[in-house]
Design brief:
- With about 110 residues, this protein is mainly β.
- The chain has one domain.
- Helices cover about 5% and strands about 50% of the residues.
- It has one helix and ten strands.
- The strands form three sheets. Strands 6-5-4-3-10-7 form a six-stranded mixed sheet.
- β4 and β5 (about 55-60) form a beta hairpin.
- The longest helix has 5 residues, at about 15-20.
Length: about 110
């Protein structure tokens, strides 16, 4: 991979910066939205970032999803620094202490008829 590899969304990943994310604990929030704009579900996950490439950010999950692999879109710019503290996951009841990063996504249902 070149220092600034292009990804599908026209953003580039600086491999030196990407290396700074490896090993960081990330808290992931997913909200599912139906075609009418209503929330149909939520999911919360957490784990350590194990790799970042031009195609994906790989997270090895912890907690009830221990050792499962979850891939995020390849955009480290959406990873936000988390404030220190305890984060209670509403969907599982788990408590995550002092994650390094936070990321949230809304997943919208297809608009196809």
């Amino acid at each position: 991979m070149n220092k600034n590899s292009k990804v599908d969304n026209q953003q580039s990943i600086d491999t030196n910066r990407a290396k700074d994310f490896i090993g960081k604990l990330v808290l992931i929030g997913l909200t599912y939205i139906d075609r009418k704009g209503l929330v149909t579900g939520q999911k919360e996950l957490y784990g350590k970032i194990t790799a970042i490439s031009q195609y994906k950010i790989t997270v090895k999950l912890q907690g009830i999803h221990k050792d499962e692999i979850f891939n995020l879109p390849p955009d480290p710019l959406v990873l936000k620094k988390a404030q220190a503290g305890e984060y209670k996951l509403h969907t599982t009841g788990e408590v995550v202490t002092d994650p390094d990063l936070l990321v949230t996504y809304e997943i919208n249902a297809s608009q196809k008829s």
